[in-house]
Design goal:
This is EFMT2 methyltransferase. By secondary structure, this protein is α/β, with parallel strands linked by helices. The chain has seven helices and nine strands; from the N terminus they run ααβαβαββααβαββββ. The mean pLDDT is 89.
Length: 210
């Protein structure tokens, strides 16, 4: 990948400072990464596989926290969102308050250097955070490897990892997460047709930690 501002903390701090101001001005929580369908796809999978409502769920790079709000509305009660941008966490806390979902926990955490208390999760979810890590102008390959190590630390053995990506194909993600994880399922995502070839603009996979 070509390094991008999307891979820098400065970019996300500035973006979420703008979204925080917008929320305070007009109550708009901002962009939902990959759209609402991506959230419903995750919730449907959890419900289909009867993942217990008290399972501990970690949203990696929670942004505005809207995914966790939707999970709470679906009955999930043990929800944590982390983001390395303090402005994102401020925004997610305000969205949580507006929605009346006081039980959702939000923390400023860098997933590449997680605190010791960030461990033992049954489910980890990533919508675009691994993509952003992959665009870092500073040792993106090393950061991807650190991401996989961090995931192995915070997710319980046999825990589920649901990742949604617009930068990586299924085969590439299988390679990235080959150490310590196995593929369970590829989730259906919208398809597009270009030049007579059909492909997916988004990849959504479910892994299980070995």
């Amino acid at each position: 990948f070509v390094p991008s501002a999307l891979g820098t903390r400065e970019h996300w701090d500035a973006a979420y400072e703008r979204e925080l101001q917008t929320f305070q001005d007009i109550g708009d929580a901002g962009e939902i990464w990959f759209g609402e369908e991506s959230m419903m796809r995750i919730i449907r999978w959890l419900e289909k596989h009867q993942v217990p409502l008290d399972s501990s769920v970690l949203d990696i790079g929670t942004g505005n926290g809207v995914l966790l709000v939707e999970l709470a509305k679906s009955g999930y009660v043990n929800l944590t969102g982390i983001d390395y941008s303090p402005s994102a966490i401020q925004l997610s806390e305000k969205v949580r308050e507006k929605e009346g979902m006081s039980d959702i926990k939000f923390k400023v955490e860098d997933f590449l250097a997680p605190s010791a208390e960030l461990s033992g999760f049954d489910v980890c979810i990533d919508k675009g955070t691994f993509d952003a890590v992959s665009l870092s102008p500073d040792d993106a390959a090393g950061k991807r490897q650190q991401y996989v190590r961090s995931l192995g630390r915070v997710l319980k053995p046999e825990g589920f990892f649901l990742i949604t990506s617009c930068n990586w194909t299924k085969e590439e993600l299988l390679n990235e997460f080959r150490e310590g994880f196995e593929i369970l399922e590829e989730l259906p995502t919208p398809k597009f047709c270009f030049g007579g070839r059909i492909g997916n603009s988004v990849t959504a996979l479910v892994f299980q930690r070995k």
